[in-house]
Amino acid sequence: MTTLRIDVDRRRCTGIGICESLVPERFEVDDDGTLIVHDDLVTPDIRDGIEDAVRSCPASALSLTERNEQ
């Protein structure tokens, strides 16, 4: 089974928090600017929001990856 997962390039992430504002149930920017991804699995109910967050990231730190799960 193939699943879609959120990937974060921590070297690029600046902690601006646009992703958090778009999908707060998955993204959180900690007080020190570190991005926390609460669950990297992209489910159908939040896929549109996650895709918006990826497109909206000014640092291009977010991406989506298809992974084969067993």
Question: Can you give a write-up of this model?
Answer:
- The chain is globular and about 35 Å long.
- By secondary structure, it is of the alpha+beta class.
- A two-stranded antiparallel ribbon has the order 1-4.
- Helix content is 21%, strand content 29%.
Q: What portion of residues belong to β-strands? A: 25-35%
How much helix is in the residues? 10-25%
User: Which whole number gives the mean pLDDT?
Assistant: 95
Number of E-state strands: 4
Task: Give the count of helical stretches.
Answer: 2
Q: What is the overall shape?
A: globular
Largest sheet: 2 strands, antiparallel
Radius of gyration: 12 Å
The low-confidence parts are none
Spatially, the strands of the biggest sheet line up as: 1-4
Reading the helices and strands in chain order gives EHEEHE
* Span between termini: 6 Å
How would you classify the helix and strand content by structural class?
alpha+beta
How would you summarize the topology of this molecule?
Blueprint: E1 2-8, H1 18-22, E2 27-29, E3 35-37, H2 47-56, E4 62-68
Antiparallel strand pairs: 1-4, 2-3
Brief sketch in words of this structure:
Helices cover 21% and strands 29% of the residues. It is an alpha+beta fold.
Task: List descriptors.
alpha+beta, two-stranded antiparallel ribbon, globular, two-stranded antiparallel sheet, 70 residues
